[in-house]
Automatic annotation (TrEMBL):
Protein name in UniProt: DNA replication and repair protein RecF
PROSITE patterns associated with the record: RECF_1
RecF/RecN/SMC N-terminal domain boundaries: 2-342
Annotated organism of origin: Geofilum rubicundum JCM 15548
Keywords from the named record: ATP-binding, Cytoplasm, DNA damage, DNA repair, DNA replication, DNA-binding, Nucleotide-binding, SOS response
Main location: cytoplasm
């Protein structure tokens, strides 16, 4: 599967562009703020019906305009398919496959698998546990539709339980009986989520280790350890034991909504001890493991977007990264950088076909 053609109208600072791509490596070079990341974001949008960077869709419309449109042609299993994404101010977004609008956007997710790796992924390391849960949920729900349904159900039960706890205003007797219903739901739905997360991490961890060892040269010892209340015996009993505390606090303190991944570098939290380059290597290996995981599950190579990934990596790590993406496992790759000579030297080494686009003020010129 690969993206063959993309036309953009009013997507962030890209007012109008018609771009052709090939399998292999597509490079975008330009100064800061030129529109390189915006282009990758548009490609991301075609896969996930949302931006990688902006939670609010209307922010994607070019300033002073009323709409944006993205039209793309993909080759999927030797067949050309057309996709359309459009948003008018104050209206619902439209997403179409071969001119037919999707009844639900979720029907589209998973059709055009893609992994974006950007400097912003450092939040996986630096920010709170919600980022790591989002990472797990994002990957697993791409191929397991039931998983997304479980998360939605769990969150509903959690919201109900929390509302009950808040309404109790610290009085146990007011809620004791009703809590049982929600405890039961959190235990069963949460248990199913926990099982899937456990399998995912067990599959991901060795692949993460493999990529980390390869890029770093193997001198650093790393680990990704899954922590969940469900790992301890009888979750329902834990819920029961925490009821007094939950009522006092007005929210639920036990459950998969508190799951986390402990990220270790040489036995210490990478967040505290890792240098910028070490952190970059760490999340790069996590995202590449995600890529391999999805590749195995879909049976074909997702698109890979590498946004500004060579900055802060030493020469050894940068050359190892490029050696990796030169492999067969990666079919179509989009890379951004500010310096053409550096990127040209890097991509030549892969032996893959490549294209260069120069980017300035949201405009793209083929520059091979
Ligand atoms: N809705 C919008 N309308 C117009 N311009 C926008 C909009 N949203 C973002 N921009 C502009 O897009 C530019 C950022 O583009 P982008 O992030 O693609 O840069 P880049 O080429 O990747 O730069 P860098 O090398 O710094 O990462 C900024 O100048 C920003 O003001």
């Amino acid at each position: 599967m690969y993206l063959k053609r993309l036309s953009l109208l009013n997507y962030k600072n890209i007012r109008q562009a018609e771009l052709e791509f090939e399998p292999g490596i597509n490079c975008f070079v330009g100064n800061n703020g030129a529109g390189k990341t915006n282009l990758l974001d548009a490609v991301y949008y075609m896969s996930f019906c949302k931006s990688y960077f902006n939670a609010i869709d209307s922010q994607l419309i070019c300033h002073d305009e009323d709409f944006f449109v993205l039209q793309a042609q993909y080759n999927r299993q030797e067949q050309a398919e057309a996709f359309y994404a459009g948003l008018k101010k104050n209206q619902k977004k439209q997403f179409k496959r071969n001119k037919k609008e999707y009844p639900r956007l979720s029907d589209h997710i998973g059709l055009l698998p893609l992994v974006m790796i950007s400097p912003g992924d450092e939040r996986l390391i630096n920010e709170g546990s919600d980022q790591r849960r989002k990472y797990i949920d994002g990957v697993v729900s791409q191929f397991d539709k039931n998983y997304l349904a479980l998360i939605i159900k769990y969150n509903r039960a959690l919201t109900q339980r929390n509302a009950l706890l808040k309404g109790a205003k610290g009085r146990m007797s007011a809620v004791e009986e009703q809590l049982d219903i929600w405890n039961d739901q959190l235990a069963t739905i949460g248990g199913a989520i926990f099982d899937r997360r456990t399998h995912f991490i067990a599959e991901l961890e060795p692949v993460f280790q493999k990529y980390h060892r390869f890029i770093s040269g193997g001198d650093e010892k790393v680990g990704v350890i899954y922590h969940s209340h469900y790992q301890k015996d009888n979750f329902e009993e834990q819920l029961q034991r925490s009821v007094i505390r939950d009522v006092a606090l007005g929210y639920t303190t036990k459950g998969v909504h508190r799951d986390d991944l402990e990220l270790l570098l040489d036995g210490y939290p990478v967040k505290k001890t890792g240098s910028q380059g070490q952190k970059k290597t760490f999340f790069l290996a996590m995202k590449l493991a995600q890529y391999e995981f999805l590749s195995n599950h879909f049976g074909f190579a997702p698109i890979l977007l590498l946004d500004d990934m060579f900055d802060k990596l030493d020469d050894l790590r940068a050359s190892r990264l490029i050696e990796l993406v030169g492999r067969e496992t990666f079919h179509q790759i989009f890379i951004t950088d500010t310096q053409k000579p550096r990127l040209l030297e890097i991509v030549k080494k892969t032996g893959k076909d490549f294209n260069f686009y120069r980017v300035a003020d949201g405009e793209f010129t083929l520059d091979n």
